[in-house]
Design brief:
By secondary structure, this protein is of the alpha/beta class. The chain is 30% helix and 20% strand. It has a seven-stranded mixed β-sheet, sandwiched between helices. A two-stranded antiparallel sheet has the order 4-5. Helix 2 packs across helix 3. The chain starts with 6 loop residues before the first strand and ends in a 10-residue tail after the last helix. 41% of the residues are buried.
Length: 220
């Protein structure tokens, strides 16, 4: 049984589009929702922000990482929980996958990408954004990059990120680009923070997606 995630939300009561926002390691949803005005100033999106599912003294987190990479059981549980949340929100609002965007930061961004390419995911969002993130290593049966084909995917990374090296974001963007995703790669100034200029890059990309465009600026 998939664990129910705590979530908070902001936006119209009868939305035309939904954004699921996934914070990272040690992050709580409230500060993330407070920054929503920087990328959705007119409150056009119903934004649903979730809390990482494992509590700890360091703050809530999604999964541990060791020399072999992410804990596969915890990562799989996180992907399943996000998928269940997406199903629930779409059912509640009466919207379809085409009105859903999933956005994640850091560990949350890794989960957003993992959810997109997981063949067991019920929901495939119209578009996915991963900020200061990476494509987590999983077994071959848990990854189907072709699920991202033809879908806008934003990967934005601070050039001075001290926790997740920009090369990891660039590598993910190249892998998805090779799988025919409509990748936008943005390396911006700053470090590992869910704040400007990362959210500025997200705002431009989200605006294009909301207008029905297919933003596409792949890594060189």
């Amino acid at each position: 049984m998939t664990e129910t995630l705590r979530s908070i939300r902001r936006g119209p009561t009868t939305p035309e589009r939904v954004l699921v926002l996934i914070p990272g390691y040690g992050d709580r949803p409230e500060p993330f929702l407070e920054r929503a005005s920087s990328f959705d100033p007119n409150e056009n999106w119903l934004i649903v922000t979730v809390e990482p599912q494992t509590p700890s003294d360091r703050g809530p987190y999604w999964y541990d990482v060791d020399e072999n990479g992410p804990d596969p059981v915890a990562l799989g549980a996180a992907v399943g929980a996000i998928d269940a949340l997406c199903v629930s929100v779409l059912t509640e609002t009466g919207l379809s996958n085409d009105e859903l965007v999933v956005v994640g930061f850091s560990q949350g961004g890794a989960i957003a990408l993992a959810h997109l390419v997981d063949p067991t995911s019920v929901v495939t969002p119209r578009a996915t954004a991963a900020l200061a993130a990476y494509l987590p290593t999983r077994d071959d049966q848990s990854i189907d990059l072709s699920r991202a084909a033809g879908r806008p995917v934003l990967l934005a990374h601070g050039e001075d990120d001290e926790l997740v090296e920009p090369i990891r974001g660039r590598s993910a963007s190249k892998a998805l680009h090779r799988a025919d995703a409509l990748v936008t790669w943005k390396e911006v100034s700053g470090g590992h923070r869910f704040d400007t200029p990362l959210t500025s890059a997200l705002a431009v990309w989200l605006d294009a997606v909301a207008r029905g465009e297919q933003p596409h600026s792949p890594p060189i």
